[in-house]
Amino acid sequence: MADKPSSIPPVAQQLAEWALALQLRDVDAAVLERVKLHILDQIGAQVSCCDLPAPRIAQAYVTQFGRSGPASILGSGLQADAEGAAFVNGAAGSSFEIDDYGGNGAYAHPGCVVVPAALAVAETLGASGASLLRAATVGFETIIRLALATMPSMLLERGFHQTGAHGVFGVALVTAMLEQYDLETTVNALGVAGSHASGTTEYSQSGGEVKRAHAGIGAAGGIRSARLARLGLSGPPTIFEGRRGFLQAFCNAHDARFLHEQLGSHWHFPERAALKPHASCALIHHHFAAYDKLRATQAIAPDDIEEVVLGCEPLTLVHTGATGPRPMDIVGAQFSAEYGIAMRIVNGRNDVGAYLDAEADNFQNPAVAAIAARVRLEVDPECAAQIPKGKVTLHMRDGKVLSATAYALGSPFNPLSRGDIEQKYLDLVARSFGDETARTSLGLLMNLEEVADVRQITCLFARPGRS
Q1: pTM of the predicted model, to two decimals?
Q2: Packing angle between helix 214-230 and helix 82-93, nearest 10 degrees?
Q3: How confident is the model at residue 207 (pLDDT cuts 50, 70, 90)?
């Protein structure tokens, strides 16, 4: 017997109606400030990491095979079509584990997909900062809602990487808003985006730099999905909740209600949004914070440690425990809980420079290796709560046991201040572009709704002759 027709519109239609109707005046100022801080943080990541290997490969690809256009490849003197620019900038923004993420259990990486795509489309159109901010606000909220609907099942039980799989839908909406699509075209854009959702987490098991490109793939795929819909290609309106839709295909367990309930009246993004002070997988940041609590009150010498036990949730065990204590490449190092906590114990650092230094030593620092070999991960019920956290227990050679639990610094329960976030941006940008550009761009981004044309921002990051 056929199912009775439902009077409830498909989820894609509900998302599209909300996105197209939203005005900035409908959004609380605190929500908009949070969005601007995440845009700021992502642009800092993009321009500071644009010369790393994966972004350079992405740039070479677009230079050789892409289409010309007016969208900037930040940190170079190059421009490309919006798809190409979003691909390169997305790869740069997620290339060294300093991009934002979803905390409080909403596992996602919204900024590295939403921001490069929104900026590329807005720049192509000569759009205002207010238009960019409006679209980005919807993109961030959509991706966090997708995370709440699908995670951790999508990653833990199926092995899909959330960045591109979630991001392509957020970018399809962002593009539709900036290009002012009608409702039917926007629903089709979401339907087509489902065919671009992709990316697995096998890199966390056996390595591979392709992880760095997942954000770029999602950003370009979302723009492509919207453009195909604009040209008339239709997609399934039940792309999310349908019997062969995204939710059932990508998850063992899911909850579609997060995608449509209280749209416009409840904002999940500010409750879940998190920023990284450390250049590693976000799941390990809880343990860095827990160790820092111990170090603040105890004198801890690495040689005095017999064993380190990291209490964690199941996802952390699977996603950061596969590489083991002896990483073979920098992706492995950034996703190794054992190696990461050993770096923190020995050197007190897990920033970009610390991982680059470790790579230069071929991950053979004897002091770090000695501690990493004594690290053990275990699922801890206290950490596997609805709002996950991390526990570090040190078994000392003199018989003492030191233990602490914490939420990651930068997560909603242990947040960075606005000043901390802005300082991270200034430090990243000034390194390549100087203090004046860093401060000028910060002022424009934090007053984005007053910017007449987003090209006022992108032009600051052009380096003529840099290709």
Answers
A1: 0.94
A2: 160
A3: confident
